[in-house]
Amino acid sequence: MRKTDVRPWTPQWRERAETEMAWLEALLGGELLELHHIGSTSVEAIGWAKPVVDLLAVVRRVQTLDGLDEAFAQLGYEAKGENGIAGRRFYVQGGDRRTVHLHAFEAGAPQIGAHLQFRDYLEAHPERARAYGEHKRELAVRFADDDTHLYQEAKQPFVQRLVQEAEAWSAEMEAGGGLASGIPGDRDHAVGQSQTSGTEDDSDRTARRAQASSTVDGPSPASEKAAARLSADGSFVRPPRRSEEEMMALILGTARADERVRAVCLNGSRVNPLAPMDKFQDYDVIYLVTELDSYLADDSWIDVFGERVILQMPERMGLIPPEGRGSFAYLMQLADGNRIDLRLIPLEQAEAYLAEDRLTRVLLDKDSALPELPEPSDADFHVQPPRGSEFADCANEFWWVSTYVAKGLWRSEPLYALDHLNGPVRAMLLQMLDWQAGARHGFAVSTGKSGKYLDRWLPAESWQALLATYPSADSESVWTALLRMAELFGSAARDVAARLDLAYDEEEERRVLRYLLEVKEDAGQR
């Protein structure tokens, strides 16, 4: 049973409509005559709508679509047939949590004009649109826990009045020589657009547009846009990447429209002045919210951020222990290439959250309740100098586990050898290189996650030596990597010990190196 879900209007719905229309144009090609964004998500003045984008397709022959169910399925659409309206082909995207409805009619069908004049009437009369939106919102509250059919039935009398008003307005426009349906713009794609006036009704006008479209030479701009979404082999490619400005407008716009969100913060590399900027930077976003339960009751609210490639919710995973401590994260890789790591944190935890990370910037504070923060800094992530015991433990662990790698290679157990080489041995090597980078630069540097910035702070020859320690799976390659790691570790450890006046057990290093070479020689004689 689908529940009633009405949300504040967002420009994301128009963007989604544009994306879907381009994909559909590429799929339908010359069979498609017109494509329109209709329904409440197409009229900003309504202010409230269910988060389902409605599209209206006008085609040459509706029966042709019946042979394209598999192609529609590749775009995520489920074919529903006429679904109660004769002459229609109806498709839904999103399963039970619907995101797009596609209504397809053959040119000349009377429903086409009815849909368009209803939309255009509300666009031309924003006061009636706002009244409709408020009515929808009130009913959504009243029927929040009920089947959506009760909501639909309750709003029907109001809708019927609007339909009658739209019909009267359309007749007046046509009698006066105007058009009830304006020239298609951002919401409409039409092949061979043609507008007529006079006394013809909507269905006649739509049929005339269809006739005109069949005589136009060359693709429309919309068709060219759709063609650009096809690769050389004809397969579909991902939608265009939204800019940083568009993403931030979406993130903040969603928060502003939601009374439960009281503040928005940004963390991570996008607020780090020293981090390199590129298109793969995540949007590490925090919503400080009044409560979590209403969000977690239905995760479809995150659909506003766009089509996803994959979603992870760590707090619901058993294999990987969550780190949220009462918060909840939605990690979203979006189809356009952007990624949002969005964490919901209860408002009462705001003070503790703000104290955790100096790479934090407040973007929105509805209640002016958050303290003023210093400029973001990565100082909390700077390499820290080791204590003598830490330094000694790192060296001991490196040399101890190196013997496991040698044992695995002698036994011809490459997975065992590689697991220890690229696990504890490499972890200790990277730790020592971190300390070396810190010691060389006054411990005022950050080497980044997984040591990704080490090349900035190490000597060039050390960086190249590190890269040379990554082997393939054959035995000789792993032996070479192990001995290179041993050489690099010993060199870095002696440098750190000298700079920080620490004791390094060079005799331990010599004994283990001798052992490794003996095992290698023995393995070669087997």
Automatic annotation (TrEMBL):
Coiled coil start-end: none
InterPro entries: Aminoglycoside_adenylylTfrase (IPR007530), GrpB/CoaE (IPR007344), NT_sf (IPR043519)
Region ranges (Disordered): 174-240
Name of the protein this chain belongs to: Aminoglycoside 6-adenylyltransferase
Record organism: Paenibacillus albicereus
